[in-house]
Write a structure and sequence with these properties.
This protein is of the alpha+beta class. It folds into 2 domains: 2-12 and 36-282, no CATH class; 300-409, no CATH class. Helices cover 26% and strands 23% of the residues. It is built from 13 helices and 25 strands. It has helices at residues 36-52, 71-74, 105-112, 128-131, 200-210, 258-272, 274-284, 315-320, 326-336, 394-407, 425-437, 451-465, 517-522, and strands spanning 2-9, 18-21, 25-30, 59-60, 66-67, 84-91, 134-144, 149-159, 162-168, 176-181, 219-220, 227-228, 233-235, 237-238, 242-243, 287-289, 345-350, 359-360, 363-364, 375-380, 385-387, 413-417, 443-447, 481-487, 494-498. Strands 2-1-6-7-8-9-10-13 form an 8-stranded antiparallel β-sheet. Strands 16-22-23-3-24-25 form a 6-stranded mixed β-sheet, sandwiched between helices. The longest helix is centred in the first third of the chain and has 17 residues, at 36-52.
């Protein structure tokens, strides 16, 4: 699964809705304080909402417990009358089923095998979450003045680009009301016709009616030109309209048959819970490397328990190498070596027998006092000596966390602010290859000011088109890169999607002369 798109409304510098398409590598450009870091923040704010049920966090844990000040500081203009709207789309390969709550499906299929399908009294809808190739999740977060807290006022879901369901809530501590369901959505069509020839699109609605829903006249859906049924039933929720994750919905529905009731709740759980389960897994397996990575001192001791928040300072990378297998060490050294980043460093395993010359208080350490497992150390390949992060240039310590994160396979997204910090232009261009040629195949969201990084990506696209790539390189296409330029306006931050041509050029000039400072100085 991959995060394919993020849309922000009334979030920090973003006022009018702005959509950011994500690719395997997404680069954010723009002037300082225009809102690039807010894009990264939005993803992990969403994670706080899903995992902690906190719509007004003072700190974002995944960002090293970075202080953000709660809803009042996150909403655009600090206007509590505004509503933050976050919309995330993730794409799911057909080979991945994702989260699903179809526990009774197989049992019902066995029952159907014993009688003709047209005589069946069981709901035979397939899993919407499992069969959808893409899912859009939209949360509307509002401020509740009476309780002085923020809550999810609306939760809407699209599957395969078609609206499918919506739940709402008027306050933080009440059950959510399901007010819209698109019965005609292809993923809610039953597998068989009923005996009285009721259309497949109406079967699910009939089941809800039989289970006790109260359905008034149809109303116009705000997301399409069609009409859908309004105010159907309630389910137990948290933080307003947010369902409890990782479990089947507990609804107000009750059919004559316990099996039918269970089946209804499972289908509804696939509509409302499973999409959030999938997104939460993606965000929990994501990481963000902050703009200033800490340089460990020579007394730094690695931690066996690596948390998501430890990546923000970069410390997690130094801990992770102590658990690295030979494949990861080899992959890291491939990128640290002279053919790519050319940092003059490598990772080396230090065996206990290699440490017999160490001493404590002037006395040699006896072998029994030495660690029983190998230790991974930083090795200066030019001087053939072991070094610590504090012994090498700041640039090495700044780029090292991204190298480790890039070479570790993960399902989530790797975010990094200013990877080019303190490194030579030659290293900056090589970062482009690091992001696109690593065997791990991770997805990246990068905030950067580096023209060199972009030039390398454009070059690789051009070489791919002309079949002139270096040996062993994977071809790169414009679809693999998303270049997003952010600029300020009266309507808040605007996002300009900079198109790349098939021959590795920009379809249009950079907005507002961005990256043209060199020409101004030379000519």
């Amino acid at each position: 699964m991959r995060i394919a798109q993020l849309a922000l409304t009334n979030f920090r510098a973003f006022k009018a809705t702005q959509t950011l398409p994500f690719a395997p590598v997404t680069l954010l450009f723009g002037a300082n304080s225009v809102g690039k870091s807010s894009v990264l923040l939005a993803l992990f704010y969403l994670q706080e909402i899903l995992t902690q049920g906190d719509c007004s966090p003072k700190r974002i844990k995944a960002l090293g417990s970075k202080y953000v000040g709660g809803f009042g500081s996150l909403v655009h203009g600090k206007d509590l009358n505004n509503a933050i709207v976050l919309n995330v789309r993730y794409d799911k390969p057909t080979s991945e089923s994702g989260s699903s709550y179809q526990q009774t499906a197989q049992f019902i299929e066995e029952l159907l095998g014993q009688r003709h399908a047209s005589q069946s009294s069981y709901l035979t809808i397939s899993s919407p979450s499992e069969w959808a190739n893409s899912v859009n999740i939209e949360l509307e977060i509002r401020w509740h003045a009476s309780s002085q807290s923020a809550y999810v006022a609306r939760y809407s879901v699209w599957a395969d680009d078609l609206f499918i369901a919506e739940a709402v809530s008027d306050e933080p501590n009440q059950n959510a009301a399901v007010q819209l369901i698109n019965y005609q959505h292809p993923l809610l069509r039953c597998d068989a016709e009923t005996a009285n020839n009721v259309s497949q699109g109406e079967i699910f609605q009939q089941w809800l009616l039989e289970a006790g829903t109260s359905i008034p006249q149809p109303v116009s859906c705000p997301y399409t030109q069609s009409e859908y049924t309004h105010s159907l039933f309630e389910f137990e929720s948290r933080c307003g309209a947010l369902p409890k994750l990782g479990t089947t919905l507990s609804t107000s529905l009750e059919s004559d048959s316990p099996l039918n009731t269970a089946r209804l709740n499972e289908v509804l759980s696939d509509l409302f819970v499973a999409p959030l389960d999938n997104l939460t897994k993606l965000l929990n397996d994501s990481l963000s490397i902050g703009p200033l990575r800490r340089i460990p001192d020579r007394y730094y001791g690695s931690d066996d328990y690596i948390q998501q928040m430890d990546w923000y300072s970069g410390e997690a990378s130094w801990d992770a190498i102590q658990h690295a297998d030979d494949r990861l060490i080899s992959e890291c050294n491939h990128w640290l070596g002279d053919e790519h980043l050319a940092l003059g460093m490598a990772l080396a395993k230090k065996h206990p027998s290699d440490q017999e010359h160490f001493s404590l208080n002037g006395q040699p350490l006896a072998a029994p006092l030495l660690p029983s497992t190998d230790k991974v150390v930083l090795w200066d390949v030019h001087h053939h000596i072991e070094v610590t992060p504090a012994d090498v240039g700041a640039g090495v310590a700044q780029i090292f966390p991204l190298v480790i994160a890039a070479t570790q396979p993960r399902k989530g997204i790797v975010c990094c602010e200013q990877p080019e910090l303190h490194v030579h232009p030659k290293v900056q261009v090589a970062i482009g290859d690091l992001l696109t040629q690593c065997q791990a195949g991770n997805q990246f969201l990068i905030e950067t000011h580096s023209e060199h990084l972009v030039l390398r990506l454009l070059r690789r696209i051009r070489e791919s088109e002309q079949q002139q790539l270096p040996s062993g390189y994977t071809p790169l296409t414009p679809a693999d890169i998303s270049l997003l330029y952010l600029e300020s306006s009266d309507e808040g931050t605007q996002v300009i999607n900079t198109q790349i041509t098939s021959d590795g050029d920009l379809a249009n000039d950079w907005p507002n002369g961005f990256f043209e400072e060199r020409d101004e100085e030379l000519f």
